Amino acid sequence: MNREAALLAPYAMHSENSAGRAHPEQAHPYRSPFQRDRDRIVHSSAFRRLAHKTQVFTGELGDYHRSRLTHTLEVASIARTIGRVLRLNEDLIEALALMHDIGHPPFGHAGEKILDECCHDCGGFNHNQHAVRIVTLLENRYPEFAGLNLTEEVLSGQQVRAEKHAVQGADAPRSPGPLLEVQVVDAADSIAYDTHDADDALELGLLDFEDLLSVPLWQEAAEGVRVRYSNLEPEAFRRTVIHHLIETLVSDLVETTRVRLSQVTSLKDAVNYGPCLVAPSAEVAAKKSELESFLFEHVYRHPNVLAERAVAAESVRALFNRYSHDPDSLPDRFKARVSSDGASRSTCDYLASMTDRFALSSFREMQ
Length: 367
Prior knowledge:
19 helices, dGTPase-like, dNTPase_2
C-alpha cells in the first residue's frame, strides 16, 4: 500500500480503496488484492483454454496467427505500458486485461453469434457477461466459495464491457463512468486488434501489403519506417511497420489522455468526467476508424474467413441441439446445473468452455 501511495496518481484506483470481495478474505502479507485477482485468473481453466480458441482466424488457415491467449497477453502488455506512464494501478490493469476475453466460446465471434441465437429463450449469450459468470460461478477452485471471489473493481470493470448503455436524455443525471484502468484496457484491446489482425492477415496471404497502403494510418507508418530504414527485407519491413504503428497509437493515446487528466485531481473526478478520458486524439480516432472499416471489409469478410466461420456455425449449432435436447449427456458438472439453470443455459456453459479443436472433434464424433 505504501508503494501505491508513492507511485500512483490520485485519480488511480488504490488498493486500499477497493470495495472488497463478495466473500471477505484476510489481506495477503505481500500481494495486493489486484495481484491476487491476476493470479487467480491466470490459474483458472478458462484462461488456459484461451490457448486453443480463435481470435479471428481458425487453425485451418495456419498457425502463425493470434489465439485468444496471445491476443490477451498482447493487450496486457500494451495496457500496462499505458498504465505505467499515466501512473495508474498496473496490477488492476493486468487483472482486467487477462480476464477480458475468458468468456469467449470456440470460434470467436462466430461461435458467440450462434450461441446467442440458440440461447434466445434464456437471455442470449454475450462473451463479456459470460466472463462474469465464469469467475463468479462456474470456476470452482476454492473450497470456501464458488467462482474466484475477485474484487468488485475487476468484476465491475468486466460488467461495464457487457452492458449496453442506453442513450440518456439531456436532463438525465450523468452516471459515473468506468475506472481509468478499465478504460486503458479497452483502449489497448482496440490497438491490439487494429495492428495484429492486419499482421495476421498479411502473414496468411489474405491481404497484400500494398492493399493496406490505401489506409492513411498504415501509409503514414510505412513512410515513417522508410525514412528511418532504407534497405529492410519485406518481412522485416512489415514487422517494423507494425511496431511503428503500435508506438504511434500508444503515444497519441498517452499524450492526449495526459491533457485530459490535467483537469482531474481525484478518482471521483475521473469517473465523473463524462466522456472517456483514455482515448486517442480526434485525428487519430478518425484514422483508426478508417483502418477498422478496411479490416472489416477485406479481412473479417474475406471468403476464406467466412467459409471457416460457416463450418464453425454448423458445428456449434449441431452440438447445442444435441446437448440441449439430451442434457443427460452433458458432463456431470454441467448436468448438475440443469435443474437450476435449465438445459439451454447449461448446454451453453458447456459449449462456451470448449476450445476450437475440442468442439470440432465433438462435432465430428456426432456424424
